[in-house]
Each structure stands twice: as structure tokens, then as C-alpha cells.
Design a protein that fits this description.
Elements lengths: L5 H7 L7 H4 L12 E6 L2 E6 L2 E2 L3 E4 L12 H12 L4 E7 H4 E3 L2 E2 L2 H13 L4 E7 L4 H6 L41 H19 L7 E7 L20 H15 L2 H8 L14 H5 L12 H28 L5 E5 L10 H4 L4 H5 L6 E5 L17 H6 L3 E6 L13 H21 L3 E5 L20 H18 L9 E5 L16 H14 L5 E5 L13 E4 L7 H11 L4 E6 L13 H7 L3 E3 L6 E4 L7 E4 L8 E3 L5 E6 L5 E8 L2 E6 L6 H10 L11 E5 L2 E6 L3 E6 L5 E6 L3 E6 L8
Helix pairs in contact: 3-5, 7-11, 8-11, 15-16
Length: about 750
């Protein structure tokens, strides 16, 4: 590996030679403008620069002091260091607030300086620029009617002292002045400045190096609604006006609105954004579609406004840049949403996936799943992205354990760091996607011994980054294929009908985050898609389909499931209240009609399933509290595998039907051992039966283990790999030959 020391860097300004393995044969000649696009090639969304594929591995400067500006010493050193490891793509950030400093002053110089800083450290770099299109603070002060208001409280005055690390987004989760994401004036005026920015920057030497503009707004630039975790946006004038226009387009007359809302006094001209009391109303963990239509309408309106604003800025960049350029941003978050998906998630992701103006979707990796032995999974449903030819980029922003000086055994910390790095890099790659290494040194101080410049500045990390890049580059030239025979299905629409936070609705997080995390440790490989993408899939590879949070299923989706999914001897797994809601009404009969197993409403506390069936692993899963609604299987033709604790109600049951086998669980299916047993019953291939994290795709079997020990791994072609894993490891094998690649 061609690694320079800091002393060499400071003494001679050495620029490492690009490792050709990562460049995929690309070299940009100085002075030439980059043309960039995303195109499907070899079965994966592929980044093309100047007509040649480029591995989507990026080094990104963070927002911490000392790293937020590319021309600073630490940033320059790290850019050169990553170039030495073979990375060609780099990211920096610029804010509308830095460019548009007053109504009459606008300059692109901050962006030029950022790009020039990268090029000074590595002249052949291709640059991705994160453009924060939030309105500047002076604009918010001038236009308070265009700003967010909250149903649960008035504006706060944030502290004004010190050197904030997240300027100017330090207080995005508090009730401070921020533009409404439904403000037409913000869209028009910041959109016009974005257009001016693109046209001016494209004409500069720095603009020639740009391959992607990542548009950012909302909380931390991630297109979440401001203040959404602990607060209730958006009751401001801009959103209220937008909501009334949205209702007028949907209902057209006051009478239609009154019928939908069951409110004789409702009017299109006077409709208000629902308040806190209305939002919190629910029947257990679900809303009533007849009683709570006002809140359901508002959430649809808000989510559409957010995604449409995201698409608006992507379109502005594409139409303003004189050459082909890649656009996208943070969107499509699905896991680790703090129980607040309805208030701040990205439930209208379908609009972004189907937009011709969006090429890239990205998110930090799922924060609750990053520790050793956990799956380290992407935050979004990346396989749906692939179906729509969208490139997903993970932001890897978890620091190596070598930065935690509280760990006494630093040798073990280094082993853990390498294992997690491999898992985090190769996980998204195995699904046909990419990532960036994010440097957030201010998030973990003090520095480790040796004076490391950034999170990834150590011999172990840089050697691994180079090694992983070489492996990815080799596999990038080969056709992509998934190693999965299990399909996990999620539904965005159902979240409009779930209760307003994780305390009221403990079920959805378990169905989405919990079941997924356990599936990674079941030993099976699985793909994940949204329910609206089922019709796009070739279902032949899948022996089992697990429906997660599918509370709301409309008649056309029911027909699709009956005629295409529930066929060919496939096993379908259902949990909780699938199909209870059809979009207009709520009817328990809809569950039995959908899944083919009779169910009844029951009340037990706690809502836990106890499995004590011969052959199945003994386990208990569910909730320590009661949940409502709760359903149990009641069908003489079903086989009972588990009962609700303290009762004779069937909490886990199976029924063989014509063409398929149906399974029903009263609570979210959890426990890796149980899932492994159920999937084996369905004929699914099990790669690893010891609870390790498994990824299979891109011609690789990736096994991440915290405990290690003897293993007998089985490939899809029947080959067995007898090996012994060390504790804290991620090992990679060729999925056909079984050869150990790393």
C-alpha cells in the first residue's frame, strides 16, 4: 500500500499515486470537465464518469472544526491519505448561508474554495458537493410567515456561545427559526439561487471536477421535518396554506371534506393543521381511518411536500448544469427512526424512486445496529433502490473503536475496528451499492496516541481501506447477483395509520427494525423491498416472503399477493394485523381474507408468544405489556407452534393452502434461532447456523462474528467451508468456490 506519513505530507506535499484497482481504469486529464450519470450495468446502478464505471467509494469531510473546510491542514492530509489508499471520489459541503449572505450578496467562492482544497491535495479527484439549500438565517428573520411553527410550543431562543460543530444546523431538532418545507417562497427563492450557483460554478475550473450535487435541507440536511423527534411541526402559515391547497385538490368541495373528516363544520378555506391532541388520538397502536382522516390527510400532505421539495432541488441542479451530472440526497430512511416515522420519515419515497431527477439516495447506516456482532445495515430499503436504478450510498459515520481510549485492550479495539469496517463497507457493496467514509473527529475525543488526524488515520484502517477497495473493484467488473431466497416486504402507507410515537406504537419498530436485525443473524440471505415494488420483482428466486408492517393493504395489492406471491409452494409469513385496514376502513375480517388463516381478536397481557413445540427452538418473544389490537389464530386446519403467554390462544400458527403455506404470528417475529427454524421449514438455504451476521451478494459470502469459533458454512451450490473464525472478525468467501477472499 502506498501510504504517506504525516511528516512526509507536511515536508514535501507528496500526493500519492492513485491505485488503479479503485479507479477501474479511469484517469481524468487536467482541465477536462467531468460528465457523470447513473446507469444500470451488470445488474447494479453504476456510476459512470466520462463514460467509464467508477467504484462508488467516497471519502467525505465532516462538519467538525478542522475538517469542514478542504483547505485546512487536517483535511488536506486525510484527502491525500485516502488518495494513497486508492480512493478517487471525495465529498465536501457548502451552505446556502455561506453563499447568500444578504438579499443582495451572493457568491460561489466558498464552493470554489472547497473544491479547490480537494484538488490541491489530489488533482485527479472527482468531487461530490453537498449543497445545503436551507434558507439563510437572515431570510428566516425577514420572512417569519414562511417558517415552521409547532403545535406543542412556541419558538425558542437557542444558546449563542462557543464554536458550534454543526453550524448552522446545531439546533435543527429544537423549535428555532427554520423555513417551512412547504414554503413556496423558499422553493422559489432558494431554488433560483441554486440555479445561479450551478450555472456560475459549472463555468469555473473547480466546476469541471464536480460529478455530483447532493441537495440537503431539513434536520441536519437529511430531509426530516425540523424538530420532528420531540416536537409537532408544522402549524405555520406556509404549511397551513399548502395544506388547504392539497385538500382542495383532493376533495374539491366542502361537502366531500366534511364527509371524509366526519365534521359538519370543516371547510377547504378554513382547514387547519391538526393539533397535538388530534395527532395523539389512536386505537391502541393504530389510527382509526374513519375518525382520524384529518391527521392521516395532513401526514400525507406533509410527506409529499418534503419529497416534492427534494425533487424540486434535484431537478433545478440537473436543468441548470450544462453537462450530465448526478443528483440526489439524504432520503428513504427506514430503520432507526426513533418511533417517529409518521412525523419525520420519508414515507413518499416512491415519488423519489420514480423521479428522473433523482439518481442517488443516501443515509447514515442504521445507528441501532452498528456494534460488534450487529448487522451494520443500511438505513434504507436498498433493493427497492436497485429496482428503480437508483444508487444508494451509505454514510459510514461510526468511529473505529481505536478512538475510544476508555478501552483498555487496544489490540482488541483494533480487531473490533477492522471487523466492523469490513462489515460496513462490504454490506452495501454486496447489495450493489456504495458508501462514503465520513470524518467526524469532534464526535470522539481525545485523539488516540500517535496524533491521528481523522477517524480513519491509522495503519490498520488505511491498509483495510485499500484492501477492501481492491476487492470491490475486482467484483465490480462482474455481473451482480443476490444470494437471497428470502424476501422481506415493508409498507410505507401503513405508517400513516400507526400511532404517533414509539410509546403509543411499540409494534412498528419491532416489525421493521427488530425482525430485520434478527434476520441478518438467521443464517439466511434476504432481499428487502417496499410493498409497492412487489409487482416489479421476479419472484422465482424466493422460497419465503416475510410481510413486515403491512397493516394497510388495498384491494389491488391483495389481488397481486393472491395471484403472484402466494403461489409455487412459497411460504408467506404474516405478523400482528396484516390487511386490517384497506385505506378507507378497518375490519378484522380483512386479516383472515388476506392471509388464509382464521384469526380472532383477543386480550392478553403481556402480549408474548411462547414456543414449546417439538423440533422448534424453545423461545419467547413479544412485549412485556398489552398491545391493542391483538389477534390470535383460530383455524381448525392450522397447526399451532406457539401460544400467547398465559392463555390457550394460538400466537404462532401454520396452515398449508393450495399453492402456498401461510404462517401467522400475533406479535412481531423475533429471535434468530426461531427465524432460522421457520425458514428451514420453508426450504430456505441457510449459510451459517451459529447466529453470525450474513450478507450474500456480488459473488461473496460475508460472515461477521463477534464470538468466533468453529464453523461449517454452506454455499448455495452445496460446497461446505469448514473453518474456525476468530473472535471479532469479518471474513469474506467467494460464493461459488468457497475461496477465502479476506
Amino acid at each position: 500500500m502506498n501510504r504517506i506519513t504525516r511528516r512526509e505530507f507536511l515536508a514535501i506535499g507528496a500526493i500519492p499515486v492513485l491505485a488503479p484497482s479503485l479507479a477501474i481504469g479511469l484517469e481524468r486529464r487536467g482541465g477536462e470537465s467531468l460528465g457523470a450519470r447513473i446507469t444500470m450495468q451488470l445488474g447494479r446502478p453504476t456510476l459512470f464518469l466520462d463514460g467509464q464505471p467508477a467504484l462508488p467509494d467516497i471519502y467525505a469531510l465532516g462538519h467538525c472544526p478542522g475538517y469542514r473546510f478542504a483547505w485546512e491542514e487536517r483535511a488536506q492530509y486525510s484527502i491525500a491519505e485516502f488518495a494513497g489508499a486508492g480512493v478517487r471520489l471525495f465529498q465536501a459541503e457548502v451552505w446556502m448561508e455561506q453563499l447568500w449572505t444578504s438579499e443582495r450578496q451572493f457568491s460561489i467562492e466558498p464552493a470554489r474554495k472547497q473544491i479547490r482544497g480537494i484538488l490541491d491535495a489530489y488533482p485527479e479527484a472527482a468531487v461530490m458537493l453537498r449543497l445545503q439549500v436551507n434558507s439563510p438565517s437572515w431570510w428566516n428573520q425577514a420572512h417569519p410567515e414562511e417558517c415552521v411553527q409547532w403545535a406543542n410550543g412556541s419558538l425558542e431562543d437557542p444558546p449563542r456561545w462557543g464554536l458550534p460543530s454543526l453550524v448552522p444546523m446545531e439546533f435543527d431538532l429544537r423549535r428555532v427559526p427554520r423555513h417551512s418545507l412547504a414554503s413556496q417562497r423558499w422553493l422559489d427563492e432558494c431554488g433560483a439561487k441554486t440555479r445561479e450557483f450551478c450555472r456560475a460554478l459549472a463555468a469555473t475550473p473547480e466546476g469541471e471536477a464536480l460529478f455530483c450535487v447532493q441537495v440537503a435541507a431539513g434536520v441536519y440536511g437529511e430531509w426530516h421535518y425540523y424538530g420532528f423527534i420531540d416536537n409537532e411541526p408544522d402549524t405555520g402559515s406556509a404549511m397551513t396554506s399548502h395544506f388547504r391547497e392539497w385538500l382542495r385538490a383532493k376533495y374539491r368541495t366542502d361537502q366531500a371534506l366534511q364527509r371524509a373528516w366526519n365534521d359538519r363544520d370543516a371547510s377547504l378555506a378554513g382547514a387547519a393543521v391538526p393539533g397535538t391532541e388530534e395527532r395523539m388520538r389512536c386505537d391502541g397502536y393504530l389510527r382509526n381511518p374513519l375518525r382520524d382522516r384529518k391527521v392521516i390527510d395532513y401526514l400525507h400532505c406533509q410527506h409529499q411536500a418534503v419529497t416534492d421539495a427534494f425533487i424540486h432541488f434535484c431537478r433545478t441542479v440537473k436543468e441548470s448544469w450544462p453537462r450530465p451530472i448526478v443528483t440526489g440526497g439524504f432520503h428513504g430512511y427506514w430503520f432507526t427512526m426513533f418511533g417517529r416515522m409518521g412525523m419525520g420519515g420519508h414515507l413518499e419515497i416512491r415519488r423519489a424512486l420514480e423521479s428522473p431527477y433523482v439518481d442517488v439516495l443516501c443515509a447514515p447506516q442504521s445507528y441501532n445496529h452498528l456494534g460488534l456482532g450487529m448487522p451494520g445495515m443500511s438505513r434504507g430499503v436498498t433493493d427497492s433502490g436497485r429496482l428503480h436504478s437508483k444508487l444508494w450510498l451509505d454514510e459510514m459515520d461510526s468511529s473505529p473503536e481505536t478512538w475510544d481510549l476508555r478501552i483498555a485492550d487496544q489490540q482488541q479495539a483494533r480487531a473490533n475496528s477492522v471487523a466492523i469496517l469490513r462489515r460496513n463497507v462490504l454490506g452495501p457493496f454486496s447489495r450493489g451499492m456504495g458508501l462514503w467514509y465520513y470524518d467526524l473527529v469532534c464526535e470522539r475525543e481525545p485523539q488516540p496516541s500517535g496524533g491521528a488526524a481523522g477517524w480513519w488515520d491509522s495503519p490498520e484502517m488505511q491498509e483495510e481501506i485499500a484492501k477492501l477497495g481492491k476487492l470491490q473493484a475486482d467484483r465490480y467488473r462482474r455481473p451482480f447477483a443476490s444470494g437471497a431466497d428470502v424476501l422481506l416486504v415493508f409498507d410505507t402507507e401503513s405508517f400513516y395509520y400507526t400511532a404517533h410515537n414509539g410509546n403509543l406504537d411499540p409494534v412498528s419498530t419491532e416489525l421493521v427494525d427488530g425482525t430485520t436485525a434478527d434476520l441478518f443473524r438467521s443464517g439466511a440471505a434476504f432481499d428487502m423491498v417496499y410493498l409497492f415494488d412487489l409487482e416489479k420483482l421476479d419472484l422465482r428466486p424466493y422460497k419465503a416472503v416475510i410481510f413486515a408492517n403491512t397493516f394497510c393493504i388495498n384491494p389491488s395489492q391483495r389481488n397481486l399477493i393472491r395471484t403472484r406471491v402466494a403461489q409455487d409452494g412459497r411460504h408467506l409469513f404474516w405478523s400482528c394485523a396484516p390487511g386490517l385496514i384497506d385505506g378507507a376502513t378497518s375490519d378484522p375480517e380483512g386479516i383472515s381474507g388476506l392471509i388464509g388463516i382464521g384469526v380472532v381478536s383477543v386480550k392478553t397481557s403481556p402480549a408474548r408468544v411462547v414456543v414449546q413445540t417439538a423440533g422448534a427452538p424453545a423461545c419467547t418473544f413479544g412485549f412485556e405489556r398489552a398491545i391493542e389490537p391483538l389477534f390470535a389464530a383460530q383455524d381448525v386446519d392450522a397447526t399451532v407452534l406457539g401460544k400467547l403467554q398465559g392463555s390457550e390462544h394460538a400466537g404462532l400458527a401454520r396452515k398449508r393452502l393450495a399453492g402456498h403455506t401461510a404462517w401467522f404470528s400475533s406479535v412481531p417475529l423475533r429471535d434468530p434461532n426461531l427465524l432460522r427454524y421457520l425458514l428451514r421449514e420453508a426450504g430456505v438455504h441457510i449459510y451459517d447456523d451459529q447466529g453470525d451476521v450474513v450478507y450474500a451478494g456480488s459473488g461473496m459470502l460475508i460472515v461477521h462474528s463477534a464470538s468466533g469459533g468453529p464453523r461449517a458454512l454452506t454455499l448455495r451450490n452445496g460446497r461446505r467451508i469448514e473453518t474456525k473464525l476468530p473472535a471479532a472478525c469479518t471474513w469474506v468467501f467467494d460464493s461459488e468456490t468457497g475461496e477465502k477472499l479476506i
